[in-house]
Design a protein that fits this description.
By secondary structure, the protein is of the alpha+beta class. The chain has ten helices and 19 strands. The protein folds into two domains: about 280 residues, FAD/NAD(P)-binding domain (3-Layer(bba) Sandwich); about 90 residues, 2-Layer Sandwich (D-Amino Acid Oxidase, Chain A, domain 2), CATH 3.30.9.10. About 35% of the residues lie in helices and about 30% in strands. Strand 5 and strand 6 form a beta hairpin. It is elongated. The protein starts with a strand and ends with a helix. About 5% of the residues have low confidence.
């Protein structure tokens, strides 16, 4: 039975676009690939959110012609526990790499990927709202909000988002945490060094970007409400108290935004439909692994679908991605729950601080951790 498309991808964000390009690179005719997204290209390109790319993700982007892009390289990552001894320093020099990762903006990444996708000839529908997807034995029937219809042999759900209690169909843990996100400037920045600092309520990340740092500060809801009510001076004073003086004084902060945090992860595959990236697993931002895990999903799925468009390929995808997804989810989930559920100073929190020192002293353990964060399994 013929269909309008071999593969329809719902969600033309970084993961969906990367999947389309990986499929085309592996020989799937570009005209048989449909990309569907509710946003216009202009809306997506203007998205200012900061995102962290691992070195492995850079390799994937380079492979499909979407690198270089405007990005700040990370040469070192300093991981510490507030008020405790023990820290881990990971350096690019230890792995003979030009960078451990990169900090860029969501809009810049989408714009680069979208430009390459359009040159391949893939069918891009923007803005388009998918109203329903009905799975048949040999196809998936798609209906759009304007009444038009199409069909595909495989539907890939790649349209993710932030964690939401209302739409979390497979929620495993509710962290009761909020992330405050902003851009801050400091009086003594350290070039190309990122920081992950574990506080009594959650991780605080400082990612080098432009002439300052992209801040992702995770905390309990009541603390987030209190900090959000402060003026910039008061907020920076609180940040200084928690982070310390490694970067000198914090001197400015941009507009602050707050997002609820949690883990959505569960079975997300049927005979002809599969979810990848944030549509399959929305992770806590600790260690910045969400997008990188999604790009690895896209790499494996493209390899399998380029060989076989039957339901067997989706079954194989689930099996092939189980180990990498499981390990990444367990690492981020465990660290998040230690701080979300335990009171400040609890034994579990102290043990994490001690483990940072042990990891730094034991080179093989640090290499395993670093390589999982940089490359994962794909």
């Amino acid at each position: 039975m013929t269909t309008d498309f071999d593969i329809a991808i719902c969600g033309a964000g970084p993961v969906g676009l990367a999947l389309a390009l990986l499929l085309a690179k592996r020989g799937v005719p570009a005209g048989r690939i449909a990309l569907i997204d509710a946003k216009t290209r202009e809306q997506a390109a203007k998205d200012p959110r900061s995102i962290a790319l691992s070195y492995g993700s850079r390799q994937i982007l380079a492979d499909i012609g979407a690198w270089p892009i405007a990005a700040d390289p990370i040469h070192e990552i300093h991981v510490s526990r507030r008020g405790h001894f023990g820290r881990t320093m990971i350096s690019r020099d230890d792995y003979a790499l030009p960078a451990l990762g990169y900090v860029t903006r969501y809009g810049a990444l989408v714009d680069a990927l979208d430009s390459v996708a359009r040159r391949t000839g893939a069918a891009v529908f923007r803005p388009a709202h998918l109203e329903s997807a009905i799975e048949r034995e040999e196809r998936v029937d798609l209906t759009f909000s304007n009444g038009s219809q199409a069909s595909a042999q495989i539907l890939v759900q790649a349209e993710g988002g932030v964690f939401s209690e209302q739409n979390a169909k497979a929620r495993r843990h509710d962290y009761r945490q909020i992330a405050i996100v902003a851009h801050v400037k400091a009086s003594a920045p350290i070039a190309h060094r990122a920081f992950e600092r574990f506080t009594g309520e959650g991780p605080l990340a400082m990612l080098p970007q432009d002439d300052g740092y992209a801040l992702v500060w995770c905390m309990r809801p009541e603390t987030a409400a209190r900090l959000s009510a402060l003026d910039d001076t008061g907020f920076l004073a609180e940040l200084q108290e928690v982070f310390g003086s490694r970067l000198g004084r914090f001197i400015s902060v941009s507009q602050r935004n707050a997002y609820p945090l949690g883990l959505n992860a569960g079975t997300s595959v049927s005979a002809r439909m599969v979810a990848i990236g944030n549509a399959a697993q929305t992770l806590h931002p600790v260690a910045g692994q969400g997008l990188n895990l999604g790009l690895r999903d896209a790499t494996v799925l493209a390899r399998l679908l380029a060989q076989d468009l039957s339901p067997a390929a989706l079954t194989r995808f689930t099996l092939d991605r189980k180990a990498d997804r499981g390990l990444t989810i367990r690492l981020t989930d465990t660290m998040a729950r230690v701080f979300a559920s335990a009171p400040d100073g609890a034994l579990s929190q102290s043990a994490l601080g001690l483990s940072l020192g042990l990891i730094d002293a034991f080179a093989p353990a640090k290499r395993v951790l670093a390589e999982q964060m940089m490359f994962g399994w794909r």
